Amino acid sequence: MNGRCFIFGALPVEELKAAPGENDFVIAADKGVLSLEKLGIKPDVIIGDFDSLGFVPEGNVIKLPVKKDKTDVGYAADYAFEKGYKTFYVYGAFGGLADHTVANLQISADISAKGGRMFLLGEKQTAFCITDSTVKINGSGRLSVFAFGKKARGVTVTGAEYTLENADLDPFFPLGVSNSFLGAETQISVKSGTLLIIYDN
After folding, report:
1. 155, 164 in Cβ contact below 8 A?
2. How high does pLDDT run on average in the chain?
3. Residue where a domain stops, chosen among 124, 151, 176
4. 129 part of a folded domain
5. pLDDT (tens digit, 9 = 90+) per residue, 135-187?
6. Contact yes or no for 170/151 (Cβ under 8 A)
7. Residue 98 to residue 14: CA distance in whole angstroms
8. pTM of the model as a whole
9. pLDDT higher than threshold 80 for residue 91
10. Residue 1 has pLDDT above 70, yes or no
């Protein structure tokens, strides 16, 4: 699947750092339909229990029960992943309620473990996970790298103020918090495990 999946959650979205194109798949998760209406973007599907929205919208709707094990964003991610999408950009789901933010970080980690990549695009920061892989980022400002779920082994960080070389990161000790980009390309890799990467937009 060449296209990307864009998921819009409940938090208001004023501007897009990355916008969906012609071949991309757009999902409104519950109240995310309001942000899409404001942005003038028509979702391909609307998924949710609609407890946040307060009514069932018109369109291609998948109605979920209120009592369920996954969040609306989690159902949306699973739905698109089963369709073959591997790259996700999620708006309105990072930086609001702490419990839902953690849930969405877990969803990003799950997508990463299955071979995909999910970017949670917040107002001030972006977060995503990598598993047993390498990523290159051109950024500025603050950068933090955490072991997520279990110990991350063979972590290397280059092109940042504080570097690591084949180190192990513990999920209960935040060694990688508050690093900084140096203005050039930063490379982060992990040989075994999952890293949560958070950086300033």
Report:
1. yes
2. 94
3. 124
4. no
5. 999 989 999 999 999 999 999 999 999 999 999 999 999 999 999 999 889 99
6. yes
7. 21
8. 0.94
9. yes
10. no
- Secondary-structure breakdown of the chain: helix, strand, coil percentages, each rounded to the nearest 5: 15, 40, 45
Q: Whole-angstrom Cα distance, residue 28 to residue 81?
A: 15
Which residue matches tokens 């999952």? 194
Nearest CA among 182, 190, 186, 176 for reference residue 134: 190
| CATH number, domain containing residue 32 | 3.40.50.10240
Q: Between the CA of residue 179 and those of 20, 22, 122, 145, what are the distances in Å?
A: 31, 37, 19, 8
Q: What residue numbers bound the domain in which 160 lies? A: 134-200
The answer to whether residues 87 and 157 belong to one domain is no
Report d(CA 106, CA 71) in Å as an integer: 11
Q: Are 169 and 95 contained in the same domain? A: no
CA distance 92 to 121: 7
**Domain CATH for 181:** 2.60.120.320
pLDDT at residue 52, rounded to an integer? 85
* Residue 199: C-alpha distances to residues 2, 72, 83, 121, 180 (Å): 26, 25, 29, 10, 9
Q: Which of 101, 124, 147 is the last residue of a domain?
A: 124
Over residues 62-88, the pLDDT tens digits come to 999 988 889 999 999 999 999 999 999
